[in-house]
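Technical note accompanying the year-one report. For the benefit of new consortium partners, we illustrate the data format agreed upon in the data management plan: each record pairs a sequence with a structure-token string. No post-processing was applied to the example shown here.
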Amino acid sequence: MKIKKYTAPTMPEVMKEVRKDFGTDAVILQSKEVKKGGLLGMFKKTFIEVVAGVDPEPVNSKSIPREKQITEYNQDNHNRKTKDENPLREEILNIQRLIEAQGRQSNHEFTPIYQLAYEHLIAQEISPTIAEQLIKEVRDDETNQDEYHNLESILINVKQLIVNRLEQVDIGFTYDHRIIQFVGPTGVGKTTTIAKIAAKLYLEEKKKVAFITLDTYRIAAVDQLKTYAKILHIPVEVAYSKEDYRKAVEKFSSFDVILVDTAGRNYRDNQYLNEIQEWPSSLKVTNYLVLSMTSKPKDMLDIFQRFQLLGIHGVVFTKLDETEQYGNLLNISWNNKIRIGYMTNGQDVPEDVIQPSAEEISHLILSDNDES
């Protein structure tokens, strides 16, 4: 990594020099105030000193997968498979699956057809505990036992149980306070998500929206939000300190909503989480946790538990178009009864953001995207 120290009277002037030398891939390693000049130790002026660096071989942005192409490919492939299927082939597949399930050892004392339904839920990355609870509840329901003679009937009833559970969870983007912070680990798509939500609030709900970014760790993140702000005609302020944050909030006192982009760093770093908690100080904020659907179930649960100390109002699930397993939607909301604000499925602003219903989420979770 190439490293260089910069000094200037203000942070924007420092950033201008850093960007000039290193471009948008620069990383801020350290920043502090220093005193310089003066006469006999008096009348010294305050300067900003920044240590910045850049990887000599930055990641080529062209290597990032184009999410829309992935979505279209998966949809075309799924449609092609659907056309080729016929009832006889599907029946043969069900018999094969049933025979396989009958030969597997189960700790749940499920009959083969229920074992097959259980494994269908596991394949969608629904946690084993939740999957077992759902299948047992369907199995033990004596009112419709005559219906439960095939996998489809069982899954229809599982789907309704999921809908009932999700209806106990608040769905939809709401906020108790006009300052809305978006928190989460690096790489989940916070900045793009904020732009999508801002577009919805501004264009559809006619809200007066402003941006504040605390993500000064990477210059590219600041530039990205500024680009979105320019396109949407939304003002943006960059906060390098708690005082900057407070001043930005004061500046936007007449706005309906202030969307705050926090830094994306290692969520296992307790200092990072403490900073997010301390920066708002006495300000009243609503926190939304941004989670990527490409995360492993265990990792996503760990992320959620670590960010809970901030007081999470709801979650936004991103990158739905990059996976075919949606069990995490249920895993997070089942035990925590946490609000699902939005789901995103692409890079387009503002099109690729969805405010789903309980029925839509349940259908997505139980959809079979691999029928070959």
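Partners are asked to follow this layout when depositing records. The longest strand covers residues 27-36.
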